[in-house]
Specification:
The complex is a heterodimer of chains A (212) and B (543).
Chain A lengths: L4 E9 L5 H10 L12 E10 L2 E10 L6 H4 L8 E7 L3 H5 L1 H11 L5 E7 L11 H11 L2 E4 L8 H17 L12 E3 L25
Parallel strand pairs in A: 1-3, 1-4, 4-5, 5-6
Antiparallel strand pairs in A: 1-7, 2-3
Chain B lengths: L43 H7 L4 H9 L8 H6 L2 H8 L10 H7 L18 H14 L10 H4 L59 H16 L1 H12 L9 H7 L7 H22 L9 H10 L13 H17 L9 H16 L16 H20 L10 H17 L1 H9 L4 H10 L8 H13 L3 H16 L1 H6 L3 H9 L8 H18 L14
Helix pairs in contact in B: 2-6, 6-9, 11-15, 12-13, 13-15, 14-15, 16-17, 16-18, 16-20, 19-20, 19-23, 20-23
Classes of the chains: A alpha/beta (212), B mainly alpha (543).
């Protein structure tokens, strides 16, 4: 399918905060109450529309365990957006945000848009981190913030789409170098008539090398 | 004692490329012409000529007329190089029962087990068993059972329709009542479960004349009913089961845990189990201490998330068993500690051991473990711990800092595929698919997430019989898996399509046949490349 832009995302955060469930809800519109552990990275994709333009999101869902950090780090590079997720019912996942953020900033390109997500709002009775705390953290570090529930799907679409909107705006502002795929952004094939042989939907770096 | 020490297929063969067949690896013929080497003749006569001066050839000579000519199950058995080691594994199981028979007859390349690691005890024991076997394996024994007894409750299949059947498992995932459980790649992989087909438990007999197989089973039944024969047979044939819950002993043995000597077994098991529960007594309370609480917390979070759709793993008692096993292992192996995925590696052992004590008509995945006597559950826990521990000993660099073992193997996989299937490699490369993106999990979880559990159990059965099976042979299996889907992968024309396919391989329907083909391909690759790393360099090859 043709698209105007391709954005690459990465989802990060502690073990068990609901990263995979968020992705599953976003890509498949379903919730699996218990989700087996993510090993290394897993891939998901979906098309969205912003400003009347088709945008393809390719998302890397990463394992939360520290042991996999050396593997998952390499996925920061080449991501235009990151969803940094914590669990509002587990304070430790919130206190670890600083480490995650440092890691992300260190290994990603400086323009990467980071969305902070407090997940599991369906478990309000067990809430351990106030919404205001999340907001304050986001403000302090220049992140966008949302609370979501992968279970009820509340704000899940919005979280992914708002991140895309922010990236899109940055493109309009000329902040992103869209010709450099290392930024996690790629122009769709129909925008590159100069390469008629490029197969539709080809995302390969080599294949896309002739674009623009 | 004059035992064959080398794995059989490493031996130089007279005709280059004629890999001695691994049982189950020979048919149906591989579609890939290059794998035709596997189908080297294995007629009884040829095998007979290969026999060498050992006591087994006498045994085989005496018994070969017990079987129909052209029966390649037995042909493989009659290869002394392959079969002899297993003769030494005879165990005392006088209480073997009829249902065990058709289980044990699902012969697989377990028969290739090498017993290098196990001290064999007295020659007299062995000879005695051999003579019993040879005496009882006579064709004139009157079968006294019917196929109905052997396959009780299983539907019969008309000849010629076998091909639609998939390998059974009365163990897991293959029951009509549980279409999706363990029926696909790891749960957690985003995929819709494949439509389920009921698979009768004797699919192993496919592509053959069923009646002949039934007659064979009848012979076995009568043999096994003789008290002395039971002794001679049980251990040997236990080894051969792969999809059925009868391999506690071989598993234990192959994991280097159980001595081959019957007399020492009970004591060893008791001692090791006691040792494990000693660890628990000594260390389990440390789980809330400062140094270990992170480890424990991680395990504690992970265990309830394992196999979320299978009720067995949602039982508190089972989850506690897994927590203890993993915690004790983790703190005793600080170089790696607990890494997600290791939890998956306990599962096959646990399920196999559990299956052994559960009535075969009961679906293990729904079994309520609290129904078992406490002692039995403790034994399963102890045995699972030691077997997992033994497995992990061989692959610890997969889980140490930065997981160098996995990085190396994924690199090797890439090189291997580049060499053996250049178009596929190019296709992946062109679409910016990196091997690490999909093969990391293949290595980290030893394919537990990529194929159904019954197939993993089957696969590991072979790994256990291979030197460095879980470390090195696994690499060739991964390459074979990739080749298996080469065409599908190349049909996908973009990164997204390839990645989604690779992390959701359509293997939900897989059974023994598919795993056997995979193993055949893997053996072939190993045969070509394992001892000749230069073959991986294009210059050394034809291309």
């Amino acid at each position: 399918m043709s698209y105007a832009y391709l954005f690459k995302y990465i989802i990060i955060g502690d073990t068990g905060v609901g990263k995979s469930c968020l992705l599953l809800q976003f890509t498949d519109k379903r919730f699996q109450p218990v989700h087996d552990l993510t090993i290394g990275v897993e891939f998901g994709a979906r098309m969205i529309t912003i400003d009347g333009k088709q945008i393809k999101l390719q998302i890397w869902d990463t394992a939360g365990q520290e042991s996999f950090r050396s593997i998952t780090r390499s996925y920061y590079r080449g991501a235009a957006g990151a969803l940094l997720v914590y669990d509002i019912t587990r304070r430790d996942t919130f206190t670890h945000l600083t480490t995650w953020l440092e890691d992300a900033r260190q290994h990603s390109n400086s323009n990467m848009v980071i969305m902070l997500i407090g997940n599991k709002t369906d478990l309000e009775s067990r809430r351990d981190v106030k919404k205001e705390e999340g907001e304050a953290f986001a403000r302090e570090h220049g992140l966008i913030f949302m609370e979501t529930s992968a279970k009820t799907a509340a704000n899940v679409e919005e979280a992914f789409i708002n991140t895309a909107k922010e990236i899109y705006e940055k493109i309009q502002e000329g902040v992103f170098d869209i010709n450099n795929e290392a930024n996690g952004i790629k122009i769709g094939p129909q925008h590159s008539p100069s390469s008629p042989h490029a197969p539709s939907g080809s995302l390969g770096q080599q294949a896309g090398g002739g674009c623009c | 004692m004059d035992l064959p020490r080398k794995p059989f297929w490493k031996k130089p063969t007279k005709s280059p490329g004629s890999i001695k067949p691994v049982y189950g690896a020979q048919h149906p013929p591989m579609s890939d012409p290059s794998s035709a080497v596997i189908s080297s003749s294995s007629s009884p006569k040829k095998d007979k000529t290969r026999m060498r001066r050992n006591s087994f050839s006498e045994f085989a000579n005496k018994t070969e007329d017990a079987w129909d000519a052209g029966d390649d199950d037995i042909c493989v058995l009659s290869d002394p190089d392959i079969y002899q080691p297993d003769i030494y594994s005879l165990t005392l199981q006088p209480d073997i029962t009829a249902p065990d028979i058709y289980r044990v007859l699902t012969i697989t390349d377990s028969l290739t087990y090498s017993f290098d690691d196990y001290s064999l005890d007295t020659q007299s024991d062995i000879t005695e068993d051999l003579s019993i076997t040879s005496l009882t394996l006579q064709p004139d024994i009157t079968p006294d059972i019917t196929s109905a007894n052997l396959f009780k409750g299983l539907p019969r299949v008309p000849h010629g329709s076998d091909r639609d059947l998939k390998q059974p498992s009365n163990l897991l995932g293959c029951r009509p009542s549980s279409p999706t459980l363990l029926g696909g790649p790891g749960i957690g992989v985003r995929q819709t479960p494949a439509p389920f087909r009921h698979i009768p438990a004797y699919k192993r007999l496919l592509d053959k004349d069923l009646d002949r197989e039934v007659a064979k089973l009848e012979k076995f039944k009568s043999l096994l009913e003789a008290p002395s024969a039971a002794r001679a047979f049980s251990g040997t044939w236990y080894l051969s089961s792969c999809i059925n819950p009868v391999y506690k002993f071989p598993t234990l043995m192959l994991q280097g845990y159980l001595p081959a000597n019957v007399d020492r077994r009970k004591g060893t098991l008791e001692r090791k189990r006691a040792e494990y529960f000693g660890f628990i007594q000594q260390y389990y309370d440390t789980r809330h201490s400062d140094i270990h609480q992170d480890t424990y917390r991680q395990i504690h979070i992970d265990i309830p998330r394992m196999n979320p759709l299978i009720s067995l793993f949602q039982q508190e008692v089972v989850q506690e068993i897994f927590e203890r096993i993993l915690y004790i292992w983790a703190i005793r192996h600080p170089a790696s500690g607990y890494v997600q995925g290791i939890n998956d590696l306990v599962t096959p052992f646990f399920v196999v051991f559990l299956s052994e004590v559960v009535d075969e008509n009961v679906n293990v995945e729904n079994f309520d473990v609290t129904q078992l006597p406490e002692e039995t559950v403790r034994n399963i826990e102890g045995d699972s711990y030691w077997c997992t521990s033994k497995l992990l000993d061989g692959i610890q660099d997969n889980y140490t800092f930065a997981q160098p073992g996995i990085q190396l193997k994924v690199n090797a996989l890439s090189k291997l595929v580049k060499r053996i299937n250049a178009p596929l490699h190019k296709h992946l490369d062109k679409n910016s698919v990196e091997y690490l993106q999909f093969a990391f999990r293949w290595m980290n979880n030893l394919l537990m997430r990529e194929i159904p559990l019954r197939c993993t159990i089957r696969l590991w059965d072979t790994y256990q019989s291979e030197p460095e099976g879980f470390a090195m042979f696994h690499l060739y299996v991964c390459a074979a898996l990739l080749l298996e889907f080469s065409r599908d992968i190349q049909k996908e024309k973009d990164f997204q399509g390839i990645m989604l396919l690779l992390q959701n391989l359509p293997t939900a329907h897989w059974g023994n046949e598919e795993v056997s083909q995979l193993l055949a391909q893997a053996y072939q690759l190993k045969y070509m490349f394992a001892d000749a790393p230069n073959h991986l360099h294009p210059k050394a090859g034809k291309k």
